[in-house]
Amino acid sequence: MNTFKRHPGWAVTAAWGALNGILVGILALYHEDLLAVMLYVGAAVLVEIAALAVLVSSRRGPREHMRYRVPAGGGAAVPVAAAGLTIAALGFVYGFWLMSLAVPVLAVAAALAVHQGTWRRGPS
Amino acid sequence: MKTDPQAVTEPSPAPRPGGWLGVLTSTDHKRIGLLILGTSLVLLFLMGVLALLMRSQLAQPAEDVFSPQTYNQLFTIHGSGMIYLVMTPFALGLGVYLVPLQIGAPGIAMPRTTLLGYWLYVFGALTILSGFAAPQGAHADGWFSYPPMASSRYSPSVGSDLWVIGVFLAAVGMILIGWTVLWTVLRKRTRGMTMLRMPVFSWSMVATCLMVIGAFPALLAALVMLAVGRVDPSVFTSNVWNIGYQHIFWFYGHPVVYVMFFPYLAAVGEVLAVFSGRRYFAYRGTVLALLTFAALSMSVWGHHMFATGQAANNYYSLTSIALLMPAGIEYFALVGTIMGGRLVFTTPMLFALAFIPQFLIGGLTGIMVGTPVIDYHVTDSYFVVAHLHYVLFAGSAFGLFAAVYYWFPKATGVLLREGLGKLHFWLLVVGTNLTFLPMFGLGYLGMPRRVSSYFTADGFGLLNLLSSCGAAVLAAGMLVFLFNILESLRSRRPAGDDPWHGHTLEWATSSPPPEVNFTPEHPLPPITSNSPLLDLRKRRAAQVAEEQKGRA
């Protein structure tokens, strides 16, 4: 009970996943196709994994934030990375020769991210 | 008032690009939010043009403005665009902009991931639209693209492949954005901002983002299935693949309706509270209703498959009708908020008030089509088109415009013109109901959806003409909206920090807010409830009254 109070973000996420778990159980009682039931189970599990991530973060970090890390750079790499991923995806339509374009673009994005990825920290 | 130390950050150690490059690569949540909102508004106009083209084709019987093949492309890209590229991104974009401000955080969690989500969305949109330049045109199988129709055997166009890739990229972008907004709400709240002090809008983003995380991966799975089927169409000779696709697609396809609804509903709630001068009514009940609604919405997908005869209809009908309970609580909360309030009829308030009855039509007809016996009769007819447009346009889009008029002064520091706003509102009310109300009649008379033409003898002519006239009124309203934005930005009327006497934290800072949201000049006020600024005003009023009493 104390964990619920101390980590309300986790509690909300986990409870929401559990509510979906109950709805899956009722779905199974209606003899729905196994594929549909497993689909719903998969989603509920995904939410519980998210809840677990929130719990781990809550336990490691403060309940209320006093120190923020605000990224000051690295944004320039992002559109380049997205362009690289898009070119790579278009390879499925126009042929995988497009990888020869996508890989250098993604390399440029990685270089930009490393070069500009500085951080600044708020005072405590 | 004491400045919270977390609101202050050190100056940037490295120079960052300025100008447009700076805007497009910024990790400031407000800039990313505005990029998402701006892009989705541009796409809203584009999708509106496609809708007008469709209505011109259907205005009269046996029209020949477009070929059936072109018409199929128009409704497919209109539907896909509105759902994948306009209403969903706008809803999440509001969250990116507003949630950190409302919970008192200086930024969003994982801002570069958020920015990546935006850029994947942009490239996804461009990929989908580039289908129009493909030799056989854009994708033409509807926004849900059922196989085997959407397999390469029956839809060999490269435009269909581009659609699959584009929707995949945009969906990945939305999942990334949803995750960062959720993490921000759950882990980045400022001191004193407990979960039950968060504004209703931020709570709506919790429910929305939980659905994004739970349901959107199913869309990716469905698209992978479709891609496999486009490589090897023979897989879609199997019932498991065809019905399996429908299950997986609709597992995403129904929750996304609520992703496109909750943030707008909550925006309407905040507008109603502020312009009624009252606290949000039944706050805790609404929070519980939002979460229950979201969970139930994950369980109703099979009602889109009643007519297949291969879904557990009783279960899906039960859960669909059970949605009435949380929806009712939310509705009563909206009505309870304005009951007894001193209403101020500004443009955002008008949009918020119109949302209530208009969405009710969409919601109640949803219960009708969630009942198998009625659904068998109206499935794939214009009744369904009318229902979904009452939900997504008469409902959600009115919430969207309430949000735009309400938060535009905060985001830009400029007030929109009230006169033009009200003209926009009335044109939209007339246009919306003239366009979509006749569609219920068309559906009842038996007009199937996705047909490019009909005969005079069918008797659909008058209602279609009315609907097309309504679309023209809608277009006029949207032009007024566009003119209002451009004119207001050209001849700027300063909004001030809090032009509406807002209740939530974003109104405590400057308009537009500074980079880290709250500064020593604009500190966070004490957070005592979900309406901290209202509390502050009441405390000040009480102090003034006390002082006057003392003097007397």
How does the SSE layout of this entry go?
The complex is a heterodimer of chains A (124) and B (552).
Chain A lengths: L1 H5 L1 H22 L4 H27 L8 E3 L5 H18 L4 H18 L2 E3 L3
Chain B lengths: L18 H6 L4 H30 L9 H35 L8 H19 L28 H30 L12 H32 L7 H15 L1 H5 L2 H15 L6 H15 L15 H10 L1 H15 L8 H23 L2 H7 L3 H31 L5 H28 L15 H30 L41 H20 L1
Helix pairs in contact in B: 2-3, 2-4, 2-17, 3-4, 3-5, 3-6, 4-5, 5-6, 6-7, 6-9, 6-10, 9-12, 9-13, 9-15, 10-12, 13-15, 13-16, 15-16, 16-17
Please tell me about this protein's structure:
With 124 residues, chain A is mainly α. Helices cover 73% and strands 5% of the residues of chain A. Chain A has five helices and two strands; from the N terminus they run αααβααβ. The longest helix of chain A is centred in the middle third of the chain and has 27 residues, at 34-60. Chain A starts with a helix and ends with a strand. In chain A, 36% of the residues are buried. With 552 residues, chain B is mainly alpha-helical. In chain B, 66% of the residues lie in helices and 0% in strands. The longest helix of chain B is centred in the N-terminal third of the chain and has 35 residues, at 68-102. Chain B is globular, with a radius of gyration of 24 Å. The two termini of chain B are 28 Å apart. At the A-B interface, helix 2, helix 3 and helix 4 of A face helix 4, helix 5, helix 6, helix 7 and helix 10 of B.
